[in-house]
Design brief:
- With about 200 residues, this protein is an alpha+beta fold.
- The protein has 6 helices and 7 strands; from the N terminus they run H-E-H-E-E-H-H-E-H-E-H-E-E.
- The protein has one domain: Gcn5-related N-acetyltransferase (GNAT) (Aminopeptidase, 3-Layer(aba) Sandwich).
- The longest helix has 21 residues.
Length: about 200
């Protein structure tokens, strides 16, 4: 509206944040390895990002290989690194839920006041990245299932409350969302949109 000359906004109180740039160390680590061993689903481990080095590494991988790049996650958040035999194969980020989505809100059946009180109990899967050189059948749904099982406990340990629902948005036609369906997430179509909202109990 400001661009159209309809309103005049005050000057920002804070300077615009600098764009993300990976450190040279992290930038070197996130390149495709010369040797890519096969992934054994039985060897998957899920690590909660807590150390500053892992945080920088997570940011760098997402910036280099996720189509949306790296942006700070909103509100309360958790990030995960998934490894197979010690090698990073996937990264996930969870943050605050969308304020309003008609399919989700209709499925829950809450009022505006109830949504305002309880929205913090819903967590949004804002980033999900399988590294582009990794090829393994059923990997994405397996990773989603592993992380979904532990997220409520991890969230409680950090924030002292337990979420009850996970949600995400699948951009069509770029993605089909098959891995979410395979991990038993439920689909709801957003009206007049190129996205579908997907959610599951936490």
């Amino acid at each position: 509206m400001e661009k159209d000359g309809l309103i005049t906004l005050p000057l920002p109180r804070c300077a615009k944040p600098l764009s993300y740039q990976a450190s040279p160390e992290c930038a070197a680590l996130v390149r495709e390895p010369a040797l890519i061993p096969p992934v054994d689903l039985r060897t998957l481990t899920v690590e909660l990002v807590t150390h500053p080095h892992d945080s920088r590494l997570w940011n760098a991988y997402v910036e280099h290989h996720h189509y949306l790049g790296h942006k700070p996650l909103p509100g309360a958040q958790l990030r995960y690194i998934v490894r197979a035999r010690g090698e990073i194969i996937a990264l996930l980020g969870f943050g605050a839920a969308a304020w309003k989505t008609q399919p989700r809100d209709a499925a829950i059946g809450w009022s505006a006041a109830q949504r305002q009180r309880n929205l913090a109990l819903i967590v949004n899967n804002a980033r999900f990245l399988i590294l582009p050189w990794i090829r393994c059948k059923n990997l994405a749904s397996r990773v989603l299932a592993l992380v979904s099982r532990r997220l409520a406990d991890d969230w409680y340990a950090r924030y002292a409350y337990r979420p009850v629902l996970l949600e995400t948005f699948v951009e069509k036609p770029r993605f089909t969302g098959t891995c979410y369906q395979a991990a038993n997430w439920q689909y709801r179509v957003l009206p007049v949109s190129m996205q579908e909202t997907v959610f599951c109990p936490c």
